[in-house]
Amino acid sequence: MDDRVHPKGTPDGIRAPGSTHFPSDVGASKPAPPPPNATERPIVARTTTATEDAAREQARAAESLIVVTTTTATEDAARELASAIVQQRWAACAQVVGPITSVYRWDGTVQTDQEWRVELKTRASLLPAIEAHLARWHDYDVPELVATPIVDGTAAYLRWIVDETGVQ
Q: What pTM did the predictor assign?
């Protein structure tokens, strides 16, 4: 048997790391190669750089970021809430999504209505201000207010949310 390696590893295209032998060489007179050194790590494709990872961690550590969701009965009401909250810098941005169909229980009956959803990207520390604003200006008796943590994102986008919700 010779020591040549198939151009793509073994005949089926896979070769053990550090191996120059075909699987059929197992048990041959040549000893198996030693296992990779514990300090050696396989090269893994990364989608971000170490600098981006550090910036993302810094943005997350500096402030917990959230998406606040609410719904309104009209597109105009959704736009007004979104605009006022972004204007106050309580959110970096807001998306108005709709119309959507909501099915919910109210006053003991199941109801179906058309609504518009508002999604606000912000700091968790600003949630009380947003909640107070919704309590005063929202068109519902019990406005939806759901805060979802942002667990990841690009470093630049997370930093932008922090920067745009800062006190000026």
A: 0.65
